[in-house]
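Students often ask what a holo structure prediction actually looks like on paper. The answer is less mysterious than it sounds. You provide the chain, you provide the ligand, and the output is a string of discrete structure tokens encoding the 3D arrangement of the protein together with zinc ion.
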Amino acid sequence: MYNPQQVKELQTATLKWLNNKNISVNEVEELRNILRFHENRYYVMNDPLVSDFEYDSLYKQLEKFEQEDAAIITRDSPTQRVGGGLIKDFPKTQHLVPMLSLENSYNANDLVDWDRKARELSKLDTIEYCAEPKFDGASISVIYENDQLLRGVTRGDGETGDDITANIKQVRSLPLSAAFSKYGIEQIEIRGEVLMNKSNFKKYNDLIMEEGLPPLANPRNAAAGSLRIKDSKEVGRRNLEAFLYHVSYHTTTDNRQPTTDKRKQAPQNSNDRTDIEGLKNQQPATSNQPLTHSGMLEMLWNLGFRSPKKEMKVVKGIEAIIKYVEEFETKRDELPYEIDGMVIKVNDLDLQDRLGMTSHHPRWAIAYKFKARQASSKLLGVEFQVGRTGAVTPVAKIQPVQVGGVTVSSISVHNEEYIREKDLKLGDHILIERSGDVIPQIVKSLPELRDGNEKTIPFPTTCPVCNDTLYKPEDEAVWRCVNINCEAQVVERIIHFVSKDALDIRSFGEANVRKFYSLGLLKNVPGIYTLDFDALGKLEGFGQKSIDNLKAAIESSKTQPLHRIIYGLGIRYVGETTAKTLAQAVSNIFDFADYTLETLQQLEDVGVKVAGSIYEFFKNEDNLHMLQQLKSVGLELQSKKAAKREGNFNGQTFLFTGTLNQLKRSDAEEMVEQNGGKIMSGVSSKLNYLIVGDDAGSKLEKAKKIPAIHIISEDEFLKMITT
Ligand SMILES: [Zn+2]
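The corresponding structure tokens follow.
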């Protein structure tokens, strides 16, 4: 959307605003344009040119101007995304054009048939098609009027949906204003999909699971649920994204009366849940407006929307389409977001109009569905597992079934409430889903298939491992065994400690922990470091080579950084992120023994519950004793922070690229660290210095586009060291 000249100007203006605090309020619109530009770079292009910190400081400057004089606030100012207070309810709104469902196809033959019909009707030999991903999120329509975002609506029943305008404004890839007037468009309705990308979905699920809540089955549910939250600030925290992929309606500035005849043909309802397309544009296009679907997607992209411009492909004939969609399916898992198929549309808008629609679906578009990642199975039984924090988790044993290429035979069903909500009974037919790399989940039971022999799932009142009475705090969903010496918990704690994200002792693994424990060769976490290797050598299947590997892996785990050890302790609510925060806060792990609840809560993202859990852990003498033991066997319980070196590079970041002539790369990096600087792994706006050697490549090219990076030679770097 921005040409190189504009990018240069806006970046120059950015630096001006970042460096000069005395800019006049008259230039406030320039500041807004700068912020819009950086939102586009970050949320649409996925290629930010300023750091989060720099963006925030610009945003705060704008906020300050607007607070001083409310009269200067414009409706599309970047500050106006923030919703005021809680939303009471979402009023029903009619779509300008009904959101219809597309016909589904499941294989190449379906597509060939569909193409044949379209060619017969149009009397054409070949048709030009546009294929694009079928996003797996929540469908929306947005309306812009006189270049301003007017309204955002959920799909609802296709005719009417919920007005979610306040929440839709939290989707930062959606511009609050867009210059449709340049194209002679006055009012426009655009269809799209709101989604949560895989990485944000995983973070979100990790977060709710740390709180003891069941995770969501798929990013689609997460997106749909997020759009209906009544606190739009919370919606903002969910990091939703939107792809806009279809213009369903528009009026032009020269003719304000839209024709509505085609609406009568639209079905009132559709049971098909496939994504919806509206009817065709109802205005004859003037010379300004695109004449093809792909042209519309280009237009949206140029106006700052995230349209599938990069993902779409325009080709002639169905054979090329089939090749493209099959190719795309193989790359499905590499995408940062979930898709469940492709949508193929007749590219020429005039031909779309001529093809019209059947009683249910438009004839000019079809959905091509990828292989399902849902499958039905039967719930055979439920086992109860005791985790490292004593939580008793029901695990459903199901009739083994293939989902997305993996055989699934057991699925966590989290807790009693979850079982009740999903209405699960022993013997039930169930629908399961495996979404990308997310663990499989039960979507729902199918009560209509019951024959009366289904049984309620019994929940134990005592620990299935140690028989102690189970206990459930009032505000929690999970039953717990509170016997700290419960075998199951001890074993799970050791398994967690050696796991990949904790101490990463590779040759150990869950099976070995269980085996050694059951034989009395391993009793607790510190016991990992005092294993009797002679005794292990006598076990069946343990040759000298596996003993050597195990020894080496255990030995090298002693140098793991503090945050991995803290995570490995398995303190409740302390995930990897919190573990990192904690490791950075102290120079020695034993410092936490002196921390109060208040000091803990001053740490980033540590709330009351998390602080309470950490506090309890370090008040417990047994835990402190265990840490002493770990220290005495040689684990590094000091933070690297204690050894942090000081120098004139403090707070500065560096990256080397190309071949250095005078220094070895590792020596040069060591010099940076000795002077208090930090080595970055790649070029980003957080980088301060790029040191360029011979034959530098893409890193240099990328750095040239970011004015804030100082690009220097090896000589200049050496000069910095000596001065
Ligand atoms: Zn127990």
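DSSP finds 24 helices and 24 strands in the chain.
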